């Protein structure tokens, strides 16, 4: 189909405002970091599910590939077209309606283009709480969160998007609409089909809406910044706090000294609240729905026991909202601060919580043997086994020389991860960045099942081709 004919038919579906002008396409053709770039045939922005269905039907009949895109905040290139100028980017950002808010059922039904921060605010207005929290929450969309099975800082208590989702609506590769927006917590009538689409990165269809869980709003929060001498102390501290506080332990973030040093060096206003530096730090948060939950006392009790056991070197408990924000800024600023240190390699792996110390010891040794004095920026949601194991170049190594080591470094990290039966992607997905590594490290039987599902639902291979598989 000629471009002019195709464009006329698309405009007939979505209207002139539903197609991005040629001069404005670039924002949709690259990821936010500029790491992945492509050329889209057209960028189409449907306003509702019916328009998505019609566009997908048209593309299916014409044999045109589609790249679904949300806020385009991903880290693996999963929402970027290739450079063939043959693929259509289907941006869901205009689909930002809230379809229903049901506080009595603790659910909210929203379209895929709703921004995560807006959803958090809507839940708060309803007197409830939506727990997914990410660094990109001001610009990422619910559709993208679902497509990548997003996690964030509160997975330890609330789970990731798989656990937060009750139902979805999706447009299948042939344009058929699956109306799966059921707000049910129990539905034992067969396969849980929504889970096929969550985490599928748009390769099986286009998620257009979802029913999401809300929770009672926390009214008490206690936050502490803790200095640790070793990673094994962090694992013991998690268990101590959990034994004392149960599911009131909302977050437990681990950060290496290098991570924190980058933040305090490069981000204005960020300061380590402890007098002496430590090899490792933990950021601990408790929350409760009771106003007088005495969480601070519980946290101090847990830390006191850890002091006596020799697991904690020093600690500070925040006593104001301003102090809480300052502590979280140290954690949330790591990725940005690392960018100031030149080229870096970012990895998002997960392993069993109990194996984290052994993994770090083994991976650190491998990388220092490959590239002496490499700077390791290790941090993450250690309470659920998710580490961002990032690598910055040595100070005395040029960017070009560092890039020559990139493949060997990444291979080494993934090999160590595999040796612990871990995953090379905990929450960022596969996209383009990890596609080849997934072929090497994922079980062949699992890959075969994934390909069989892909071929069944998308026999023409038009949904986000080249991603994940």
From TrEMBL:
Q: Which GO terms describe its biological process?
A: respiratory electron transport chain
The answer to whether keyword Flavoprotein applies is yes
Answer whether the UniProt record assigns the keyword Flavoprotein to this protein. yes
Q: Which Pfam families match?
A: FAD-oxidase_C, FAD_binding_4
Q: Which residues form the FAD-binding PCMH-type domain?
A: 36-217
According to the UniProt entry, its GO molecular function terms are:
catalytic activity; FAD binding
Tell me the superkingdom of the source.
Bacteria
Kindly list the cofactors needed: FAD
Keywords for this protein:
FAD, Flavoprotein
The UniProt similarity line reads: Belongs to the FAD-binding oxidoreductase/transferase type 4 family.
Q: What is this protein called?
A: D-2-hydroxyacid dehydrogenase
């Amino acid at each position: 189909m000629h471009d002019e004919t195709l464009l006329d038919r698309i405009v007939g579906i979505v209207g002139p405002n539903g197609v991005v002008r040629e001069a404005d396409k670039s924002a949709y053709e690259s990821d936010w970091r500029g790491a992945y770039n492509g050329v889209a045939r057209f960028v189409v922005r449907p306003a509702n599910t019916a328009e998505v269905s019609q566009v997908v039907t048209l593309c299916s009949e014409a044999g045109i590939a589609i790249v679904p895109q949300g806020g385009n905040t991903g880290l693996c290139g999963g929402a970027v077209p290739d450079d063939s100028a043959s693929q259509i980017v289907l941006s869901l950002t205009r689909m930002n309606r809230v379809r229903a808010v049901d506080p009595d059922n603790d659910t909210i039904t929203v379209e895929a283009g709703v921004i995560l921060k807006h959803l958090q605010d809507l839940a708060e207005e309803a007197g409830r709480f939506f727990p997914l929290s990410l660094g990109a929450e001001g610009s990422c969309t619910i559709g993208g969160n679902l497509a990548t099975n997003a996690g964030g800082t509160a997975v330890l208590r609330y789970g990731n998007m798989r656990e937060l989702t009750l139902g979805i609506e999706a447009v299948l590769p042939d344009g058929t609409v699956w109306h799966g927006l059921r707000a049910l917590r129990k539905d034992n009538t067969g396969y849980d089909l929504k889970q096929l689409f969550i985490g599928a990165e748009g390769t099986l269809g286009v998620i257009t809406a979802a029913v999401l869980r809300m929770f009672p709003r926390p009214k008490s929060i206690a936050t502490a910044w803790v200095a640790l001498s070793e990673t094994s102390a962090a694992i013991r501290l998690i268990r101590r706090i959990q034994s004392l506080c149960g599911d009131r332990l909302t977050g437990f973030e681990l950060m290496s000294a290098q991570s924190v040093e980058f933040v305090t060096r490069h981000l204005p206003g960020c300061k380590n609240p402890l007098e002496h530096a430590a090899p490792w730090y933990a950021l601990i948060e408790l929350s409760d729905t009771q106003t007088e939950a005495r969480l601070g006392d519980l946290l101090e009790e847990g830390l006191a026991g850890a002091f006596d056991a020799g697991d904690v070197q020093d600690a500070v408990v925040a006593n104001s909202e301003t102090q809480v924000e300052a502590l979280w800024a140290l954690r949330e600023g790591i990725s940005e601060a690392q960018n100031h240190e030149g080229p870096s390699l970012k990895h998002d792996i997960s392993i069993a919580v109990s194996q984290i110390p052994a993994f770090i010891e083994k991976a650190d040794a491998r990388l220092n043997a490959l590239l002496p004095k490499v700077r390791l920026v290790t941090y993450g949601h250690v309470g659920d086994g998710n580490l961002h194991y990032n690598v910055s170049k040595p100070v005395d190594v040029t960017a070009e020389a560092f890039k020559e080591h990139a493949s060997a470094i990444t291979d080494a990290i993934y090999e160590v991860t595999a040796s612990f039966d871990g995953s090379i992607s905990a929450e960022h997905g596969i996209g383009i960045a990890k596609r080849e590594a997934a072929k090497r490290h994922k079980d062949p039987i699992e890959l075969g099942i994934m390909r069989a599902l892909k071929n069944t639902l998308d026999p023409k291979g038009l949904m986000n081709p080249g991603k994940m598989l």
